[in-house]
Write a structure and sequence with these properties.
The complex is a heterodimer of chains A (about 325) and B (about 400). Chain A is mainly alpha-helical. Chain A has helices at about 1-25, 25-55, 60-80, 80-105, 110-130, 130-135, 155-180, 180-190, 195-200, 205-230, 240-250, 260-275, 280-295, 305-335, and strands at about 140, 230. Chain A has 14 helices and 2 strands. In chain B, helix 2 crosses helix 11 (about 305-315). The chains are: A mainly alpha (about 325), B alpha/beta (about 400). The interface of A and B includes residues 20, 26 and 138 of A.
Chain lengths: ~325, ~400
């Protein structure tokens, strides 16, 4: 009970801090935090797939790109309002994830990883091929959402708060999902496939659904990305972004919802600081930090409290054993 | 129990309300524009220091060497130039982040020479909205000068691809007025810019395009396109390619024994990157264009501008290869920036743009006769001339005179 209360307090504290961000930092920093929220949604989606269902996708950058282009084209070519483009991107990616998932999910583990990798390699080329629609390598400039005058907010602050609201909705949905029927089925599939199927879980349907939901998350993040950057080009969606998402879920912590936020902070800020240390060594430093992280916190950042608690418990137990031993010897002494 | 909870809730709500009440942000309205003081000017650039296009980093190094050289000689009207560069790995979203950081965090006076067509495309709306000078971008797309009204803070520098194609058309009209041209071009903004410029330029002449083949920058080879072009009845080959494909096309032409007048665009005319790998014997007689001095050419070894450049490179960037033409490019564009700063009537961004829009100067390390000139507000093309060169024996030899493109 008290555990739960602590958690609620932490969530509320985090929410308050998140709302305060745009009023504490300058526009550039606020822009960075907006991107953190964007990445957090994509990472959360990938975590639903990898962390909860145990399947690996190396190609979530492709769904991210699909969502981004869906939103960009709707806004620029069809003059759809910004907010409507978000669910549209989600639906398109859900459908794409579903169609793609049906054949691919009959494949296990590494095979699925390879198929999704292929998707991530192919998509930027496809975007270039359809240059009549996508403007090819030139990229597409998209109008960013503008703060309504009566709010009295600067555009970057408004953009951040809008992203925060969208991210909050996505996080709540994920939280609900992992605790509901789908969440239980998914975890059962991950841990013991055969047992799950004997209990009546439809393996293929469950996996396909998770894959599609996960793709939809990447798509929504893609649309949010368009708002934040105001520009899409195929070069923005290379393999690097797919791998960054994967790194983020591992750094943040597999199968944890809060981990997505930490992972997103990591992939936004660490490369920037790494290139400040030395532009020529950016990759080396980023890679080094990643390796160090895996050594020190193999469960990811979200595993830190658990690790600390385990450590404390071990100490406590050791201490208790000692006092007990002491008492025993004392008694022996008396005897 | 529940009471304590209610208090916590209220505290959170109060915090949120407080934050919202503090809405907006105190906009600091200082006296002048940011990034400039009586003794310093801060400029910002975004370059691919890492990633696939990292060869272009040399441009930043050449520019930095020039600014250090100017600072060592007292700066611009007593102001020392502080040149902040960030890495974008040639990725447009990182260029966007960098532009934000340079303008909002570093508070630079102007963006200078940000590199790459897609990267500049990604930032130019933002930069113009912020009303920050976006000067001498390192890309040859013709867009930068086309929309001066919509993007008054942006300007290009190097001869754009349309200018280059006009120079080729002009050359053909003199040398081969009834040329039948076969074209190989890269299927993107760059290739189309050059090809369409050429088509416009030959309209009304007896020059005609008899064959056209395109490739994607991701294609492994252009061999099949080349054999199709070689089987046409063309007597001239216009090679619109980036370095890797320039080399493949030259090699394929040699293998197919296709002996026609070969025009190679400036982007692919690097001796080190393109011609040496395919063998100089296959490059004899190829025609291309240039607009700045080749640091390897014997004919410029004693030119004062070249001597000054090489001395400064040795002094300020001793680890850099002074024979890399990208260093010369960086040096030349930085020289232009210094001229623009010198022409400011007062230390404001507006004044800098006024100076940029009425440049009229010669940069000594550019080829003799090439002017850096803008006339009034509508002109977004500082350099609009190039010189034809032909590869003979070991080196590029300049032909005739500088050709002014009739933009």
């Amino acid at each position: 009970m008290s555990n739960r209360r602590v958690r609620t307090a932490m969530v509320l504290g985090l929410a308050a801090a998140a709302v305060a961000v745009p009023f504490l930092f300058g526009p550039y920093r606020v822009g960075q935090f907006t991107l953190v929220l964007v990445y957090a949604v994509a990472v959360l989606g990938l975590n639903l797939l990898v962390g909860y269902s145990g399947q690996i996708s190396l190609g979530h950058g492709a769904f991210f790109a699909l969502g981004a282009y869906t939103a960009a084209l709707l806004i620029e070519k069809a003059s759809v309002p910004h907010l409507l483009s978000v669910p549209a991107a989600g639906v398109v990616c859900f459908a794409a994830g579903f169609l793609f998932g049906v054949p691919a999910l009959r494949l296990h583990g590494l095979y699925l990883a390879l198929v999704t990798l292929g998707l991530a390699i192919a998509l930027p080329q496809l975007i270039k091929r359809f240059d009549g629609l996508t403007e090819g390598t030139q990229g597409l400039t998209v109008d960013q959402p503008v703060a309504p005058g009566w709010l009295g907010l600067a555009d970057d602050q408004f953009l951040y708060l809008l992203s925060l609201a969208l991210a909050a909705v996505m996080f709540l949905l994920a939280w609900n999902m992992t605790r509901g029927q789908l969440g239980r089925a998914v975890r059962a599939v991950r841990d013991r496939e055969i047992a799950a199927s004997t209990l009546g879980v439809n393996l293929a349907a469950t996996k396909t659904r998770v894959f599609a939901v996960s793709a939809a998350y990447a798509g929504v993040a893609g649309a949010m990305y368009v708002f934040a950057i105001g520009f899409v080009a195929p070069e923005a969606f290379t393999l690097t972004i797919s791998f960054a998402f994967l790194a983020a879920i591992v750094v943040g912590g597999l199968a944890t919802i809060s981990g997505a936020l930490f992972g997103a902070l990591f992939i936004e800020f660490v490369p920037v600081y790494a290139s400040d240390v030395d532009v020529a060594l950016t990759g080396v430093i980023y890679g080094g930090v990643l390796i160090a992280f895996m050594w020190l916190l193999p469960e990811g950042a979200a595993g830190l409290p658990r690790r600390l608690r385990a450590l404390a418990a071990r100490r406590h137990r050791a201490a208790e054993e000692k006092t007990q031993e002491g008492r025993l010897t004392q008694r022996e002494g008396v005897a | 129990m529940t009471g304590r909870w209610r208090i916590a809730w209220l505290a959170v709500l109060a915090l949120v309300a407080l934050a919202l009440a503090a809405c907006g942000r105190d906009e600091e309205e200082g006296s002048g524009d940011p990034g400039i003081s009586d003794d310093s000017i801060k400029l910002g650039g975004s370059y691919p220091f890492s990633g696939p296009a990292s060869a272009y980093r040399s441009i930043a190094v050449g520019a930095r060497a020039h600014f250090k050289f100017v600072n060592a000689n007292g700066g611009v009207d007593g102001r020392k130039i502080d040149f902040v560069t960030l890495d974008d790995a040639y990725e447009p979203p990182r260029a966007v982040q960098n532009a934000r950081r340079l303008i909002q965090q570093e508070e630079v006076f102007a963006l200078f020479n940000t590199l790459g067509t897609p990267n500049n495309m990604a930032i130019w709306d933002f930069v113009n909205k912020q009303e920050v000078p976006h000067l001498f971008v390192a890309t040859g797309a013709s867009s930068w000068g086309e929309d001066v009204e919509g993007h008054p803070w942006t300007i290009g520098w190097q001869p754009d691809y349309v200018t280059e194609s006009q120079v080729y058309a002009d050359f053909l009209e003199k040398e081969k007025p009834d040329a039948k041209v076969a074209v190989l071009y890269q299927n993107d903004a760059f290739g189309e810019d050059l090809l369409n410029g050429f088509k416009d330029a030959i309209e009304g002449t007896d020059i005609e395009i008899v064959a056209e083949e395109s490739y994607e920058v991701t294609d492994p080879t252009v061999a099949s396109q080349m054999s199709k072009l070689a089987s046409s009845d063309a007597d001239t080959f216009l090679n619109i390619t980036t370095p890797k494909f320039s080399a493949q096309a030259i090699a394929a032409a040699a293998k197919l024994d296709w002996k026609v007048l070969h025009i190679l665009n400036n982007v692919g005319a690097s001796k080190k990157l393109v011609l040496e790998p395919v063998g100089l014997e296959n490059a004899q007689g190829i025609v291309s264009t240039s607009y700045f001095m080749d640091p390897e050419a014997a004919q410029f070894a004693d030119a004062p501008a070249m001597v000054e450049y090489k001395d400064a490179m040795e002094r300020f960037e001793p680890r850099a290869d002074e024979e890399d033409p990208f260093h010369v490019y960086g040096w030349a564009v930085a020289s232009t920036m210094v001229k623009a700063l010198e022409g400011m009537e007062e230390p404001t961004r507006e004044a800098l743009m006024d100076s940029v829009r009425k440049l009229d100067t010669e940069i000594p390390i550019l080829l003799p006769g090439i002017e850096v000139k803008t006339d009034g507000t509508e002109d977004g093309y500082p350099i609009e001339a190039m010189q034809i060169m032909r590869f003979e024996k070991e080196n590029w030899e300049l032909l005739d005179e500088v050709i002014q493109a009739p933009h």
